[in-house]
TrEMBL record:
Name of the protein in its database record: Peptide-methionine (R)-S-oxide reductase
Molecular functions (GO terms): L-methionine-(R)-S-oxide reductase activity; peptide-methionine (R)-S-oxide reductase activity; zinc ion binding
One GO BP: protein repair
Keywords, ordered alphabetically: Metal-binding, Oxidoreductase, Zinc
UniProt family annotation: Belongs to the MsrB Met sulfoxide reductase family.
Matching SUPFAM superfamilies: Mss4-like
Role description: Methionine-sulfoxide reductase that specifically reduces methionine (R)-sulfoxide back to methionine. While in many cases methionine oxidation is the result of random oxidation following oxidative stress, methionine oxidation is also a post-translational modification that takes place on specific residues.
Protein source organism: Ictalurus punctatus (Channel catfish)
Length: 186
C-alpha cells in the first residue's frame, strides 16, 4: 500500500518548494541550511532505520507503535539527531492519535514550521530548527490553552528523565556564608 510513497521521496536534491517568495532570486529566505548538520553515513550508524527514515526522509512511524506514545515519565524530549530540547513531559497529552502529542513546546524557535502539501493535503510540517530533522506535524485541534497539537513521531525523539540530575548540585568551599535561605533539599 505505501510503497509508492517512498519512491518519490527519494530525491537527493532539494525538495521542490511550491512557495513563491516574491523576492529577487538569491535573497529568498528559505531555511535550507541548518545550524547543525550531520553526514548521512554518520546518521545511518547512529540512528535506527526507523529514526533515520522519519527524521531524514520525512517518514512516519506506524500509529501506536512508537515507544513514547503512551510514555508518561517526567522529563524532556530532545531531538534524536542533534539533542536539542524540544518538548517537556508536562505539555504531553493523550490525543488518542497513536503518536506522542504535545500542546506546547519548550521554545517557539526550537521548531521550524513548513507548509507540507504532500499526499494531496495541506499540513504544517514540524522540523528541528537546529538540524532540520523531520519531527511530525502541527494541527489546530489540541487542548487549551494553546489549542495546538504537535503530533510527533517517537522515532524523532530522545527522552531524558527528569530525575537524572547533573552532578555537583552542592557547591562546596564557597567563600563567605551562603544565606540561610538557600534550601538544601530538592
Ligand atoms: Zn535536531
Amino acid at each position: 500500500m505505501s510503497g509508492f510513497n517512498l519512491l518519490h521521496l527519494v530525491t537527493k536534491s532539494q525538495p521542490v518548494k511550491l512557495k513563491a517568495c516574491g523576492l529577487p532570486s538569491g535573497t529568498c529566505h528559505t531555511k535550507k541550511t541548518w545550524p547543525k548538520s550531520f553526514s548521512p553515513e554518520e546518521l545511518r550508524k547512529r540512528l535506527t532505520p526507523m529514526q533515520y527514515h522519519v527524521t531524514q526522509e520525512k517518514g512516519t512511524e506506524s500509529a501506536f507503535r512508537g515507544e513514547y506514545t503512551d510514555h508518561k515519565e517526567e522529563g524532556t524530549y530532545r531531538c534524536v539527531v542533534c539533542g536539542a530540547p524540544l518538548f517537556m513531559s508536562d505539555k504531553k497529552f493523550d490525543s488518542g492519535s497513536g503518536w506522542p502529542s504535545f500542546f506546547d513546546l519548550i521554545k517557539e524557535e526550537s521548531i521550524t514550521l513548513t507548509d507540507d502539501f504532500s499526499y494531496g493535503m495541506h499540513r504544517v510540517e514540524t522540523s528541528c530548527s537546529q538540524c532540520g530533522a523531520h519531527l511530525g506535524h502541527l494541527f489546530d485541534d489540541g487542548p487549551q490553552p494553546t489549542g495546538k497539537r504537535f503530533c510527533i513521531n517517537s522515532a524523532s525523539l530522545n527522552f531524558q528523565p527528569k530525575n537524572v540530575a547533573p552532578e555537583g548540585a552542592e557547591p562546596s568551599g564557597a567563600t563567605g556564608q551562603s544565606s540561610s535561605s538557600s534550601k538544601s533539599e530538592l
